[in-house]
TrEMBL record:
HAMAP family attached to this UniProt entry: PanB
Recorded family membership: Belongs to the PanB family.
Keywords from the named record: Cytoplasm, Magnesium, Metal-binding, Methyltransferase, Pantothenate biosynthesis, Transferase
Cofactor note: Binds 1 Mg(2+) ion per subunit.
Stretches the record annotates as Disordered: 1-20
Superkingdom, taxonomy of origin: Bacteria
Protein name: 3-methyl-2-oxobutanoate hydroxymethyltransferase
EC annotation from Swiss-Prot or TrEMBL: 2.1.2.11
Record-listed 3-methyl-2-oxobutanoate binding positions: 67-68, 106, 136
Keyword set includes Metal-binding: yes
Family annotation (InterPro entries): Pantoate_hydroxy_MeTrfase, Pyrv/PenolPyrv_kinase-like_dom, Pyrv_kinase-like_dom_sf
Amino acid sequence: MSTTFQLDTSTSRANPTPQPMRRLTVPKIRARKQDGVTAEPLVMLTAYTARQAQLLDEHCDLLLVGDSLGQVIYGLPSTIPVTMEMMANHGAAVVRGSYHAVVVIDMPFGYYEASPQQAFESAALLLKQTGAAAVKLEGGEAMAETVAFLNQRGIPVMGHVGLTPQAVNVLGGYGARGRTDSEAGKILSDAKALDNAGAFAIVVEGVVEPIAIDVTKSVACPTIGIGASALCDGQVLVTEDMLGMFERVPRFVKRYEDIAGIIQKTVTRYAEEVRNRSFPGEEQTYQPKD
Ligand SMILES: Nc1nc(=O)c2c([nH]1)NC[C@@H]1CN(c3ccc(C(=O)N[C@@H](CCC(=O)O)C(=O)O)cc3)CN21
Ligand SMILES: CC(C)C(=O)C(=O)O
């Protein structure tokens, strides 16, 4: 399959960080794990918009422009339909809204799997159009050659093993992985292959805890868990999940707040005030001078 996404030569999306020296770097992230030990776990959250990035940036080591935006922002049924255009637009917004965290952008399904060359074209476009520092892609042994190809050509890659949502049609659902010996062995060999290929970190998603621990001990680069284990070298969640924007969330999500409830209550008050004409009040209303 050839990449159908055309080169956009306009500079409208390009927007390098205003304070480049203050931003963390990929080598610094990679170096947080030394001889198998990560003293301070890596903090990663998803971000899709500039304002969200501003609010999260100083608290996070990494911001992930995840292809989960397909579901979270666009209401799509899976991450399969997500396009390069969506990733580029949201990625540029997140880079504009941040100056501290390393911004990692997901490679969307269909734009990288066919060959290392296809992956390079897509990854280079995403970095050019967003200012992000690295890409993430799903898959293990099958993607190892691609990870090395990109890394050798200036594009750092974050791997992603275990429950890989772009493979939902092969996996048959979003259930936890690694419950059988063969599945567990495959996840471990996938992670090792990515590590050997030069991935600077690996997301380990939706796996039983012993496998997450085994993977973390077996790779030199940091592992970032989601539905994995507190013993991973870092953690990631979808920000909207963590904030309580959704009624139904996977078991691995901890809802730290009830943002959906706060929004509902607030909008209820606004609607009442509009209907009883108490909004806008005097303070929000312009009057002519004298
Ligand atoms: N909002 C959101 N959060 C995510 O973590 C996320 C996305 N979207 N979109 C992309 C993928 C898809 N992910 C998912 C989606 C569903 C489940 C889920 O429903 N898990 C069930 C078990 C399902 C089963 O056993 O078949 C659970 O209760 O954990 C898990 C991960 C993780 N990613
Ligand atoms: C859930 C995280 C790891 C992800 O891949 C995404 O946001 O798409």
